[in-house]
Design a protein that fits this description.
Umud Fragment, subunit A, 3 domains, 10 helices, 27% helix, elongated, DNA-binding, LexA-like
Length: 292
C-alpha cells in the first residue's frame, strides 16, 4: 500500500526549481504541526508520507493536493501550487486561526463548544451585557459565535467557559468585573461542596458558593455569598440549567498592603493551632448581615 502511494508522487527532475515542499513546511509551521501530527490529520498515519515532499525530493500528486486542501479549507490552492498570493484565502496581515463549532455529549446533554483549527476547545468569554441572553440561548451555535474565544495559560486542555463577574456578592474573594474561568458540572450530585460555582437559571447568571453536597433526591440547593452582608437563599434544583465550577479567575484588582496589626493577630491565631481559613469562614458565617 505504501509503495502504491509513493508512486503517485512525481519525482522532481534534476534542474527543476520548485518549492512546493517548502510551502507545505510553512503551512505546518503556521499551524504548529509536526510531520507526525500532519500525517495523522491527513489520514496517512505514517511520518514517512510527507518526508520527501518537505525535502522537495518529489512533487505532490493529485491525491495529496486534494487531501491538503480538504484538511485545511482556508488554504489557498494558488499559493500551494505556485506560491502566488497569501497562504490563506481571505487572509490579512493579522489572520486569525479558524474557529468552528461542534456538538459534544456532556452527561445526558448534547452541548455546543467552539474549537480551533486543531480541534482543541476554546474558552468562550461571556461578558456582563450578554448574560441575560445567555440564560436563554446558552446552547445555540449562532448565539455562541458572537463571543470572543481565548487560550488562557493553564487552561488549555478541556472545556472551559469564562464569565465576567457582576456585583459584589462574592467580595472580597472575587470582585466586580473580575473574570472567572470554570468547567462544566454534568450532574448536580458531582459538585464539590465548599467550591464557588457559576449558576445559570432561565432568569440569570449568578456566582455563588455551594457548601453542601447534593443527593439525587434533593430538590433544593442553598446558595451562599462570600459577602457577609448577603444572606444565603435556597433555589430549586430544577431551575438550574447549567452549573460551572470555578477553577480560577483573572483580576485587575490589586489588594492594598496588609495591616501589620491584623497580620500579627493572624500569626497568634495560627500559633494557637487554628487554621486561618477555618477562622475566616467562621467569622463570615456568624456575622450579622446588615442588608440582603
Amino acid at each position: 500500500m505504501e509503495q502504491i502511494e509513493q508512486q503517485r508522487e512525481k519525482v522532481v527532475p534534476a534542474g527543476v526549481d520548485t518549492d512546493t515542499g517548502g510551502r507545505i513546511k510553512q503551512l505546518l509551521e503556521h499551524y504548529n504541526l509536526s510531520t507526525y501530527e500532519a500525517n495523522n490529520r491527513l489520514g496517512y498515519g505514517r511520518a514517512s508520507k510527507l518526508y520527501k515532499l518537505l525535502k522537495n525530493e518529489v512533487r505532490p500528486g493529485y491525491e495529496t493536493i486534494v487531501d491538503l486542501l480538504a484538511s485545511f479549507p482556508e488554504l489557498s490552492a494558488d499559493w500551494l501550487l505556485t506560491g502566488a498570493g497569501p497562504m490563506l484565502r481571505g487572509a490579512t496581515d493579522e489572520a486569525k486561526p479558524a474557529i468552528s463549532l461542534q456538538q459534544v455529549v456532556r452527561g445526558d446533554k448534547v452541548v455546543v463548544v467552539t474549537v480551533d483549527d486543531k480541534g482543541n476547545e476554546n474558552t468562550v468569554l461571556v461578558p456582563i451585557p450578554a448574560q441575560a441572553g445567555y440564560s436563554l440561548a446558552h446552547n445555540e451555535a449562532v448565539y455562541l459565535q458572537q463571543f470572543g474565544t481565548y487560550k488562557i495559560p493553564g487552561f488549555e486542555r478541556g472545556e472551559f467557559r469564562a464569565f465576567e463577574v457582576a456585583g459584589d456578592s462574592m467580595a472580597p474573594t472575587i470582585n466586580h468585573r473580575d473574570i472567572v474561568i470554570a468547567t462544566r458540572v454534568d450532574e448536580l450530585r458531582l459538585l464539590e461542596p465548599g467550591e464557588v460555582y457559576v449558576v445559570v437559571t432561565p432568569e440569570s447568571v449568578m456566582l455563588k458558593r455551594i457548601k453542601n453536597r447534593l443527593r439525587a433526591n434533593d430538590d433544593e440547593v442553598l446558595l451562599h455569598s462570600d459577602n457577609p452582608h448577603r444572606l444565603p437563599y435556597g433555589m430549586e434544583t430544577r431551575d438550574i440549567i447549567e452549573l460551572w465550577r470555578v477553577r480560577g479567575y483573572v483580576s485587575s484588582y490589586i489588594p492594598s498592603a496588609p495591616d501589620i496589626t491584623v497580620e500579627r493577630l493572624w500569626e497568634v491565631i495560627e500559633q494557637l493551632g487554628f487554621d486561618r481559613g477555618e477562622v475566616r469562614r467562621h467569622l463570615i458565617e456568624n456575622s450579622t448581615p446588615s442588608a440582603t
